[in-house]
Structure formats: C-alpha cells, structure tokens
C-alpha cells in the first residue's frame, strides 16, 4: 500500500540543497527535467524540484554494467518528465563551475534513473521572464506556477501570512473563523448570493468582509480578534480587483487608537524587515485626508517623491486670465505642479499630458516653461509680473522647469493633477522603486451626500465613530463631520482601512438620523447588531488589510493575478477550470430558482 | 481621534493576571460586571475580562473625597455593564481568600470608576453549565460566547490551528489559498451554487474540498501543500454536520505512504501533547477496512474498549435453529457480542436493545444469559451442547454475561451489532473518557456498485489509486479492488481521510473504464484535470482532516456547534442574523435568476 512502491528509488536529497560539502555522497533525487543536452557520449540534464536545480550527468563509462539501459532511458528524457535519479555528487572542474546557481560547484554522476511520469511538450518554457499571453498562462496555470518566480511568490505569500499570524498570536489576538454563508446586508457593495435549498426563495450572501461578526466578537469579550478571511465583492473587475480576495481582518477592544496604530505599524515594519530585509522607519507619517488631497490630490498618495500640488488660487484670483479668475470666483481652485527639468517638452508632449489630465475630468491643462530667456507659456501674457513671480515662488520654479496647472472644482483639480503627478513621477524616474513608503491617512469625512439617493451615506460604514470634537455637527452640518477612520497607504496603494466603531446607543441613533433612517428602518436593516449593542458593548475598533495587494507590492508584481494561485479574469472567469459553468437542471431546480436568460437569449 | 478619549482611565492590567505579587500596586482594569453584591456600606463587584475574574471592592471610607459619586456609580452597576476601574491591589484577609479563582488571594480597592457602557439584563447568565435552550444560545450567540467555557473552546481552537500551521511550516509545507468560487463538479455531494452576474445562466460552486486544486498544485511542483480551508456541502444536516466546515487539507509528492502516515501521526500526537498534555503512543494501530468491519462492525471503531463482534456462523451453520442456519446458507453471517455482567438484564431491557438493533436493520436480536445455573435463552433449545459450548467459547463467555446475536447480511450484522456495541460500551461505563485512541483504517474498497446508476462508483473519488497488487482486478473483479485510501479515526469518529492518487494515464483510463465512462465522457467531466495530468505529474497523495470534529473531541463537547463561532441549525439557519433571507428583486434580477417558489407556494 505504497503510492510509489513500484519505484525502487526513494528520494533522500533535494536538488537545490547540494553543495561542495556533499561531494562523495550517493544521493537519490526526484524532480522534473528542466532541459537535456547531449555532448558527445555524455547526456546532461538539469533536474528541478521545489528547492532548485542541479546538473546531472550520464556518462556511460562511469555507470557500470547497466550503462546501456540507463543511457537509453536518459536519451528518452524530454522537458518536464518526472524522474528519480541515483548518483554520486562530484565537484565540477574549475572551468565548468556555474556561478549563477547555488549548486553550480557540483554535479551528480548518474548511476540509476527511473521515469516516474512522462510529459507532453508544455505550451511555454518553465522559466522566468517568459513573454507569453496571460490567458495562456492562466489556462495552464499549473504549468505557470512551476516557474521559479511564481513559486517564489507563493513561498513569500506563505511566509508573510505566517509572519502575520505569529505576530498577532504573540500579541494575544485570537484567530476566529466567521461564516461564509451569511446574510445579505444593505449599504454595501453588490453581494454574491447563494440560493438556499431548504428555504425556498431565500438566499445566503458571501461576506464582503467579516465586519459585523468581528464587531459581535467584541461584544462577546474576545477583546483581540483577527482572521485571514476570504471576502467577496461582485463589482466590476479591474486589474487590481478580484471577485474573491484575502483580507487580514483585525479588531480590538479597550485599546486607544494611538496604541492600536503603533501596533499595526510594528506588524508591517517587522514583516518587511523579516521578509525583505528592509528597514521601515516608525512611527509612520500621518496626513489628514484634507492634507493628502491638498498636497497630493489623492487619499492614497505615493510619497516616495515630491512634486506636490501647489495652490495658486490666491495669486490668480484677481488676475487677467479669466479661466483662472472665474474658477476661483465660483469657489473652485487653481493648482499647479512643477515638472522639474521638463521645460524642453515639445508641444506634442504637453498635448499628451493635457489629454491625460482630461481623462480625469480636467477641461484643459495650462502650462508655463521656465526657460533661460524667460517664461514660455500661452497664458503668461494674462498675468502681471508680480503674479508670475507669485506663481513661480509658489511652485519653487527654477530654470528648466515645466509648470502645469488645472483650474476646476477641488475634486477635479485633485484627480487630474494627482494622477498627472503620478504619471510624471514614474516617467521622470523620480520614484525609488526599492523604497517602501508607508503612511496613515486620517480624519476621513464620515459622510458624503448621495445626489441619487438624496441623502447622506456613510463613507466607510454606518458604524464608524465620528471624531468626538465633531459630534455636535452630526445634526447641524453632517458633511463637516470627520470620522475616526484611517487608511494605511503604501507606495500609492491603499493597503488597509479601518475605524473606531460607534459603541454607544445615543451616538448610533444620531448617526442613523444623519443617514436619514428612522430608528425603525435602522432596526429593520441592522436589527441583530443593534440588539447586540444593547448588551454591554466595549469601545472597539479595527482595520482590514488587503493581503493580495500587500503581497503584490512585496513581490514587486504589477497584477493581483500574480499573487493569487488560481485567479480569475476581469470577467470573473477561471480560464483553467472554465468556471462559472452550466449546471444541470436538477441542480437549479433543487434550489428553487430558474435561470432567466439562457446565453443565446441574452445575445439577441 | 481616539476612540476612548472621552474616558480618562486607561487599562494597564488584566483582571485575571492579578496575584499576591501585585499587592500595593495601583491598577486600571476594564471589563464586564459579572455580578454585584452589597454588604453593608461596601459594594463588591466581580469584574471579568478575557483573562479572568477579579473582585473589586468599593469602600466609601477608603475612596477619599470623591467617595460619594464613586459609590453612586458603583451602586448603579448591573450585570454585564462595561466599566473601567482604578484601584489598589490589596491582599484579602485569610478567611476571605477564594481558592476557586486564580486571583482569589487579592482584591482591588476601587478609587475611581467609569461606566463605558450599560447593558440590558441578558437572557441568560454569563457562566458555565447553564441550562438554556440551544436556540436561545444561538440567537444571542454574542452573549453565549462570553461564557468562559465557550471562550476557552475558541482559545483552544486558535491554539490548535496555530500548532498545525507551525508544525507543517517546519516540515516545509506551503499554505496556498485555493478559490472559493469554483466549478461545479460531478461525482460528489450536492454543491452550493453561486449565480454569475456576468455570465447569465452560469454558476460558480462553492468547494466541497480543494481536492482538484491541491492535485494541480502537485502538478505545479509545490511538493508539499496544506490549507486550512472552508468547505461546503449542501447535504441534509445532522448534529455532526454543518453546511460549511473547516478542513485541514494536506497533499504531498514523492513521499512514500508510510513516511506520510508517520508524519501525520506525529502532527496529531504532538498537538495533543502540546495542548492537552496527553501522551499518544505511536505508531498508531492499523486495521484494514475488512478487519475493522469484522471486529467492530464499523469503519471508524472506538477501540477504547473491547466487546468485539465474534463470528459464530461456522458453529451454527448446521444447527437446529433455522433462523441462523438459513442465514448462513444464504451467504449471511451470524455474529454476537458479549455484554459482560449483564446476564441479569430484564426482559424489558433486552427488548429495548432489540428495538435499538432493529433501527439498524436487524430483524431481531437473539440472546443468551450465562447464569449460575446454566444458560437462559429462548433459543438455547435449538442447539446441541457442543454448539452451545462453541458459542460460549467463541464469545469468551463467563458466568454473568449476556450474549447478543444478529443473523443477517454482513452489512446489517455489522451495523446493528457495531452500534449496539457502542451503546452498551457507553452505558456500561467501559469507555475511558480521558483516553484518545487513534488508529488508521486502511485498504478501503476502491469501488462500490450503485444499484440505482447500474454501475460502479468511486468510494472516495475517481482519482484514488488502487493498491498495486489489485490493479489487475480493476477490469476483472472491480468490487475486490482495494484502494490506497486511509482514514484516521479517533474515539469512534472519522477525523481524517485520504488517499494516494492516480498519477499515470494508463491507470486513470482503467479506472474510468471500471466506472463505466468512455474516455470522452471522462474528458467531458474532468477535462482540465486530465489535461494537467499529461504534463509531468509526480506521484502524490494526501489527507483531509475535519478540524471542527477534532476540536469537538479535544474540547470534550458533544456538538460541532459548540466549536464553531457562528454555527447554523440543522435547517441551515443562522438564528442570530436570520440568514438565509429574502433579497430584493433588483438583486436576483441582476443575477439572471428568478426564485421559482415563494414560501407560501411550497407549503401548499
């Protein structure tokens, strides 16, 4: 009863671990043929397993009595065949040492070989830096994952999550598994639904996050909870979105926000130190939401470079340039960024920048180039010398700089210039790619006005605690209330977000009022949670980190699909298994549902 | 921006950690009021947090200037109020020491108190061993989880899963997260389906296990994989079933089965040693499926006690008792168990045992009581003295024993006597509840004949490797082929099951033939997996453990619901959140489905 009992060779070493110290030892290796080379009478194979690659040489003169059959087998090997090899570790001759691989000082002189399995010729080479269409990689994901850079990514992922668990365990957090078959909740993104067989017409929802359950665990007195949790959002997918994703969910009671933030900083800093060997300075910088929007035009700024947005509204408020003046008069803003050393950009280059800015809503992009012989700009003539000087001073302009301006509503200015800043930062090589720049964004707005619904909606969720000093405004000027909410940002990505939660009934009621709910409606929507909150809820709060995104940044990859073992495409398809798929009529009948539109009908 | 900034007291100690060494220290504690007692002018509260309970005393004479207001607050406290208390740790007087709690030598003399939150009177006391209907506990799960025995269970669960992860990490296993939105697969239990918004008429399925993905990871060369994975089965639920459950999923390549089993034994033994302090002898006993069925009438025997099934078919094959004789002639079995010391059972007691046996298909239960003055039995008259002697010898009967017999098809005999054995073992106190008796069941049948489908079906799944020595029978006598499949059994529960997998094409084809599939049908059902197997699949196999069940046994609980934080009832309902629930028409319309039957229509 032994799965490999029909094979005589039993692996006792791994390919990648062999070193000069092993010389003289007889070893048995198992793995995949990376490639085979014939060299006169000799056959060389590179043998690969999870630990790495080693060179095996088949020399008929050294094999002994079975030379003929061994050489015959060796000759039949093709890429990706699975074999076991027995042989002796020998030092390579000085001139054949391969310094590129850790096992390069030795090779294994084969004595015996067994083919465990054959392989068809794979659709792409099993090696790094291949230039293969992603759809092919996804269809043959099991082969894609064989490539060392993919394997290494998942080793890193395993280690990172292990590190997180060890850290939180040391800090007395309990990992608790919360349900996947949950109740559909209002006020969130679109749910994935699961029809119930035992309750006709009713549905479970897959969790968008364990938010409610983690708050309930605080009501339960668990005090410190975490979970590496799978979450689901049926939203339209982008390169950095997946229908299912992994979230590190953390919640605690009785801890002050500064303490909690310091703990989260230590978690991240120690993980990056441990896994990547980089030193992350603590405490992390903090920017309020307002500052971040003002200075970077983004609530997830990449602070690895400057080129901050400068407000010149005051300088141009009474200028002769009508576009700027009227924008300021209408309550808008005029801001600029300084593209250092880009004064020589061609008209075409500047046009391209303008097109880019327009994608983010800007109506145009004004510019000034600071040349040796003065300002070159289509709009310079509208300004007085003093105004020009004011603009240059504001943007700290020097000779050779290109200044770019957007005048619009504050949100449009932020979006357009914020994204232009990122684009230019990358193109001008201003970003130190080896750096990991963490920061906190704090004091987010609690509510935003939803024109469509004609009411305020929660920016985070309806249980987010307002800042104490803004509590009074909840009834008078809801838009001005700041939340005890915070995001952790890394290199321009939001990697985590959280808040302190409302835990007192009177504040929760004021919040629902601000959202335009009667208490009856509120109970209808969130009844069980509100009821739970009546039974001694401690002060609590937490955070949720996007594990996939953090791993993507750690592994230096551009797509979430590279850090998820079996990801889906932007249409939510698994190209390998072809999920989703048709199911039998019996299956959907048992669930008391009927698919409304067969595919054909939809196409019509 | 501090969630508790409106409170002045900051917790610096935990209730349960205070000891005689802390005497003289001023501490701030936060937690829940377990109970309040008034004693003259003094007020005592037991304050509870996650770490335990400590007594706090409010003595107006010791509080100082603010005595009046502090006493007023203390007087207003009710059970489950959340408070912070500042006070001095003092030693209790000798005669008031409470040895039942770790903090019983000290108490805290309160100086200040703040109520963080009030609480309604909870529907049951927050204490162990409550006698409350389970539905009430489930509805108020957040309060149920406050009870120390529940908290302790989840601390144990956290530690057990942590131990497993640490162990497997040391052994070079990589944890890889596999998808939750997968493809519905044939040949399994009933799937939970998830309608796709982007692919009208198509469905994802929630995974019954990560089986296919873990095998693909072996094709990928990950070599050693594990995952603590949520799995789903839409089956009819019993006390020991939940619609979603947690599985420890392990798969490896290039390892012999004995090596792998030894590793799994070490994992379990070290975990039980580490967490429960019990010594588990290794190697675990092994029984083949056949032996287990023969001796215990079960493929998951509880071997903490004897009372094995004894085959008396040979002895009674030619006897004068027609029921026994004709059963043997028809190819059935006659077996008995020996209920030691039960010769005095009343007719009524024996009738009850018979009724019990009938539930498992037995047509009757024959018996013999071995009394001082000979055999008492309604059937004794049908046997010769030699036959009686043979029966007694076979069952090692002594004076005072009660022998119980079932004659039927082997499966019915096994079921009825196997369950009777368990019932009697418990009732007679033969089971040492402090023992953990692990064993392996091996050599399971590969296939069983499905009368309904008119073909053989896989007992485990279609990728289970047959035993090498039985391979030839796959075409000639499929029912006799044993699988390289194994279960780990603990105290009568199957806690894990696995197999070595088919990794060679020719064996897989033979297997599909035995299952009555053409290769075309096989490709239709399992295409992507069969294709993957063409590209250099290593020998591999694995196991899946039921984490919930293991925890239930470790925690000494009777129900899976006690080891799952937010479990569902036997109708799949979460009584706290009332999932599943109605959803809006907009929601199901977007998914291109239509609920067929409203609840009312089904009832009609």
TrEMBL record, chains A, B:
Catalytic activities: tRNA(Asp) + L-aspartate + ATP = L-aspartyl-tRNA(Asp) + AMP + diphosphate
UniProt-annotated location(s): Cytoplasm
Region (Aspartate) residue spans: 211-214
Coarse class of the protein's main subcellular location: cytoplasm
Aminoacyl-transfer RNA synthetases class-II family profile domain: residues covered: 154-567
Any one GO BP annotation for this protein: aspartyl-tRNA aminoacylation
GO cellular component: cytoplasm
Superkingdom in the source lineage: Bacteria
Cited InterPro entries: Aa-tRNA-synt_II, aa-tRNA-synth_II, aa-tRNA-synth_II/BPL/LPL, Asp-tRNA-ligase_1, Asp-tRNA-ligase_1_N, Asp/Asn-tRNA-synth_IIb, AspRS_core, GAD-like_sf
Residues at which L-aspartate binds: 187, 233, 460, 501
Listed GO MF terms: aspartate-tRNA ligase activity; ATP binding; catalytic activity, acting on a protein; nucleic acid binding; transferase activity
Pfam families with a match to the protein in the record: GAD, tRNA-synt_2, tRNA_anti-codon
Leader sequence segment: none
Keywords linked to the UniProt accession: Aminoacyl-tRNA synthetase, ATP-binding, Cytoplasm, Ligase, Nucleotide-binding, Protein biosynthesis
Coiled coil: none
Binding site residues for ATP: 233-235, 242, 494, 546-549
EC id: 6.1.1.12
General function of this protein: Catalyzes the attachment of L-aspartate to tRNA(Asp) in a two-step reaction: L-aspartate is first activated by ATP to form Asp-AMP and then transferred to the acceptor end of tRNA(Asp).
Subunit composition and interactions: Homodimer.
Protein family (similarity comment): Belongs to the class-II aminoacyl-tRNA synthetase family. Type 1 subfamily.
Protein name: Aspartate--tRNA ligase
Source organism of this protein record: Collibacillus ludicampi
Lineage of origin: Bacteria, Bacillati, Bacillota, Bacilli, Bacillales
């Amino acid at each position: 009863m032994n799965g490999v009992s029909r094979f005589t060779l039993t692996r006792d070493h791994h390919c990648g671990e062999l070193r000069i110290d092993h010389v003289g030892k007889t070893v048995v290796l198992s793995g995949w043929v990376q490639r085979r080379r014939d060299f006169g009478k000799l056959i060389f194979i590179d043998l690969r397993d999870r630990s790495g690659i080693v060179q095996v040489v088949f020399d008929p003169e050294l094999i002994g009595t079975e030379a003929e059959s061994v050489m015959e087998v060796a000759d039949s090997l093709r890429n990706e065949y699975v074999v076991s090899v027995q042989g002796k570790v020998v030092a390579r001759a000085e001139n054949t040492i391969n310094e590129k691989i850790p096992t390069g000082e030795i090779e294994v002189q084969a004595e015996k070989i067994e083919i465990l399995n054959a392989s068809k010729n794979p659709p792409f080479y099993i090696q790094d830096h291949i230039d293969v269409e992603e759809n092919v990689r996804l269809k043959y994901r099991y082969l894609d994952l064989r490539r060392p850079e993919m394997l290494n990514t998942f080793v890193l992922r395993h280690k990172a999550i292990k590190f997180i668990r060890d850290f939180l365990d040391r800090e007395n957090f309990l990992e608790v598994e919360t349900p996947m078959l949950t109740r559909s909740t209002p006020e969130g993104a679109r749910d994935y639904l699961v029809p119930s067989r035992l309750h006709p017409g009713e549905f479970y929802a897959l969790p968008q996050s364990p938010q409610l359950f983690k708050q309930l665990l605080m009501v339960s007195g668990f005090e410190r909870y975490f979970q590496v949790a799978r979450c689901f959002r049926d939203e339209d997918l982008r390169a950095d979105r997946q229908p299912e994703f992994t979230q590190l969910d953390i919640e605690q009671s009785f801890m002050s926000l500064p303490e909690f933030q310091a703990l989260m900083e230590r978690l991240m800093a120690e993980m990056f130190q441990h896994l990547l060997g980089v030193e992350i300075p603590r405490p992390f910088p903090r920017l309020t939401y307002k500052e971040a929007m003002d200075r970077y035009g983004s609530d997830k700024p990449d602070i690895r470079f400057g080129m901050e947005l400068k407000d010149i509204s005051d300088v141009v408020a009474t200028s002769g340039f009508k576009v700027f003046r009227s924008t300021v008069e209408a309550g808008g803003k005029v801001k600029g960024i300084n593209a250092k050393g880009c004064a020589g950009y061609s008209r075409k280059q500047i046009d391209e920048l303008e097109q880019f800015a327009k994608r983010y809503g800007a109506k145009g992009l004004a510019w000034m180039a600071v040349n040796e012989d003065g300002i070159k700009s289509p709009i310079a003539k509208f300004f007085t010398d003093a105004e020009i000087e004011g603009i240059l001073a504001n943007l700290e302009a020097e000779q050779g700089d290109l200044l770019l301006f957007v005048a619009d509503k504050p949100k449009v200015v932020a979006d357009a210039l914020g994204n232009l800043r990122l684009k230019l930062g990358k193109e001008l090589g201003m970003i130190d790619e080896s750096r990991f720049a963490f920061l906190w964004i704090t004091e987010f707005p609690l509510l935003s006005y939803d024109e469509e619904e004609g009411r305020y909606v929660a920016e985070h969720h309806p249980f987010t605690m307002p800042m104490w000093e803004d509590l009074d405004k909840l009834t008078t000027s809801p838009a001005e209330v700041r939340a005890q909410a915070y995001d952790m940002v890394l290199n321009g990505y939001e990697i985590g977000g959280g808040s302190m939660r409302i835990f007192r009934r009177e504040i929760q009621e004021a919040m629902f009022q601000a959202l335009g709910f009667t208490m009856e409606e509120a109970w209808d929507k969130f009844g069980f949670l509100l009821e739970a909150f009546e039974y001694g809820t401690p002060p609590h709060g937490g955070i949720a980190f996007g594990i996939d995104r953090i791993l993507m940044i750690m592994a230096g990859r551009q797509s979430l699909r590279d850090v998820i073992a079996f990801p889906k495409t932007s249409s939510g398809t698994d190209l390998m298994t072809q999920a989703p798929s048709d199911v039998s009529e019996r299956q959907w009948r048992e669930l008391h549902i009927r698919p409304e539109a067969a595919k054909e009908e939809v196409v019509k």
